[in-house]
Amino acid sequence: MKKIIESLNREINQIESEIDDILIKAEKGIKITKSYLESLKESTEAENFKSKTSEIEFFKNTKPQLYCKLIYYVNLFNIESKRPRSSNKSQIKYFNKNIDKLQIYFNDNLEFYHYYRTGATFLDEQYFLRGKADIRLYPETFHFFTDSQFSTSHDSSVATILAYDMLIVHLKKEIDKLTNSNNMETNINAFQNQSKLFWTGNKIDLIELIYALDSTGVINSGTADIKEVASMCEQVFNIDLGNYYHTFIEIRSRKINNTKFIDKLKESLINRMVESDE
Questions:
Q1: What is the C-alpha to C-alpha distance for residues 120 and 112, in angstroms, rounded to an integer?
Q2: What is the pLDDT of residue 187?
Q3: 238 to each of 95, 230, 241, how far by Cα in Å?
């Protein structure tokens, strides 16, 4: 099952980096994820779970990692295919309206949303074991009634949360592009090829640092756009950060420590201070 997920992620990363047309990208994403979900289903049917823990892990974490991408690409296609072809202002209004719709889902499912986001486990057997469906728990999907061997009452709820996270990131990125389309490139290009500094750490660490700086409001008194900060870091450190919005979602979803690099910075600085005092 792990190989299936790794293979899917490789193909998804490939279409994300090589295809610019969003609708074509979404169509290919739908086709790919459907195929991998079918493979995952066949693999699940052929393999019995060894314990409740392994079954919960599959339906709480493994399956949603694939299913969320299908939900994401289907919604992405629907949203982008209806995108206004008029002024930037109209497009921004359209995207903000869709962000509001996605947020409504979180609000309508607030109890489960908090349960999942806080890493709670006390209802896992009810939510993520097959055959435990309880209509009184208000699941937002009924797949578990028609496909009881490959669904639980809330595995698709997790997938939807993850998918809507990615959609909101995409929509905000498009809003950023429209908002800054007239003035960003000129400002950034002034620094082209001037820096002799190179970021030699992990790309994800720099993205974590960028979001930390943006969150504290220490640049331009908090008025700087995340795109401006990221673009400047790309120029200064001669690095392409790629889809840093999507990477930030990965940072947020870390199970153990989602401020790993920031904590490392603090530890390194403290050690340097201690060594200086010796």
A1: 10
A2: 43
A3: 32, 12, 10
Q: Could you read off the pLDDT of 108-127 as tens digits, one per residue?
A: 888 888 888 888 899 899 88
Is there a single domain that holds both residue 6 and residue 20? yes
Question: Do 207 and 221 share a domain, yes or no?
Answer: yes
- Residues 190 and 119 grouped into a single domain: no
Q: How many CB atoms lie within 10 A of CB 89?
A: 11
Residue 69: Cβ within 10 Å count: 24
**Average pLDDT of the chain to the nearest whole number:** 83
CA distance 241 to 218: 21
Does position 190 have pLDDT exceeding 50, yes or no? Answer: no
Do 135 and 262 belong together in one domain? no
Give yes or no: residues 194 and 158 share one domain.
Answer: no
Burial class (CB in 10 A: 0-12, 13-18, 19+), 100: exposed
Tokens of 12: 């998804």
**Which phi and psi (to 5°) does residue 274 adopt?**
-65, -45
CB 184 within 8 A of CB 226: no
Structure tokens at 212: 């930390």
- What is the domain extent for residue 35? 2-180
Token digits for 193? Answer: 């090829």
Number of domains forming the structure of the chain: 2
Provide the 8-state DSSP code for 1. -
Same domain membership, residue 189 and residue 118: no
